[in-house]
Amino acid sequence: MSRSLISRRSPFGRGNNLSEQPRKARPQSPLDALGWKPFFQQQLSLDEYEHCEPVRVMAVHRNRLEVAGESGESSLPLESISLPTAVELRPTVGDWLLLEREDGGYRRMLERSSLFRRMAPGAERVQLIAANVDSVLIVASCNQDFNLSRIERYLALTRAAGSRAYLVLTKADLCADTGEYLEAVKSLRELPVMAVNALDADSVSSLRSWLAPGETVAMLGSSGVGKSSLLNSLSGVQLAETSAIREDDSKGRHTTRHRALYPLPGGGLLLDSPGMRELGLAGGEEGVAAAFEDIDALAQQCRFSDCAHDAEPGCAVQAALERGDLDERRLRNWRKLLREITRNQRTLAEQRADDRALGQFYREVQGHARSRKQGRD
């Protein structure tokens, strides 16, 4: 690929030039500011170190990727990349790619430190959300749309990816008493929580302790909870569109159209993404176990190792439920997520088997065609 296919702009673009920030808050290098870490550095061969430039995927569009590196931002046409068949191996927001320094050609994608994915709504396939995310802000609002089971789902996804999780309760300024919401999330043990007004820069400034220089932080939450408002307040620039929620049910409209990484003052990067009310878990039983540590610990105490936690004698889970130490809603959600993972994993396994069979069929047809051609020759 020639450099004529790559449009260069100022480093980091989007009106948020890190060079304008105070020197003491600026990371040591542009790559550090983009989240470059020893984990990625160690994957480079000597030849790649000398002849390739690492760039990070900042946004994914239908026909191109927006990437950023030491040379600034670039637009990389997808037609210039030989995309693999497996969805999990294709570039997504947050990925690190290697481009040839000489002509800007694509070399390869680096191994990920984390990967967020979900079952695509209405389809039996996996959809990638983001890669190489260090922390996640699970965003929920203090209104009718607050849903503890949905928060637990986001937490399970975050734990499965191996990322740190934080909970941000927005619209605190519109709530007469945030205490009931803070009390409701007490069951989510060891999950840091802050209640803020997403429209007020002073209110959200306390979140900066979760946005360390060089760290990549994603926001997960449904439409209308204030993710785009948080991005604008934290950046000090109108980077994302916002809109009002519906008054009858406190649900929001989609204002973010695609996932994108935005550098913030101080060196962190924040991922803004469309609201995801449907977040089918494509795997990650370990994430559910980590999000429901209390239930997992109880299950280990049951008399039978294959206890279904229903009516079996010596079930520690049922005993905790009867004592009032375990919330029935939480138990139902735990069961629901585990059933969903089992069902989705079976679906994906069947799909992979069908894909392999179809591939074998194509190869056999091509082999027969070549044999007939050779016979005629």
From TrEMBL:
Residues 131-277 form the EngC GTPase domain. This is Small ribosomal subunit biogenesis GTPase RsgA. Its cofactor is Zn(2+). Gene3D superfamilies: P-loop containing nucleotide triphosphate hydrolases (3.40.50.300), Probable gtpase engc, domain 3 (1.10.40.50). Residues 1-31 are annotated as: Disordered. Its EC number is 3.6.1.-. Zn(2+) binds at C302, C307, H309, C315. One of several proteins that assist in the late maturation steps of the functional core of the 30S ribosomal subunit. Helps release RbfA from mature subunits. May play a role in the assembly of ribosomal proteins into the subunit. Circularly permuted GTPase that catalyzes slow GTP hydrolysis, GTPase activity is stimulated by the 30S ribosomal subunit. Binds 1 zinc ion per subunit. GTP binds at T170, K171, A172, D173, G221, S222, S223, G224, V225, G226, K227, S228, S229. One of its GO terms (biological process) is ribosomal small subunit biogenesis. The keyword Amino-acid biosynthesis does not apply. Belongs to the TRAFAC class YlqF/YawG GTPase family. RsgA subfamily.
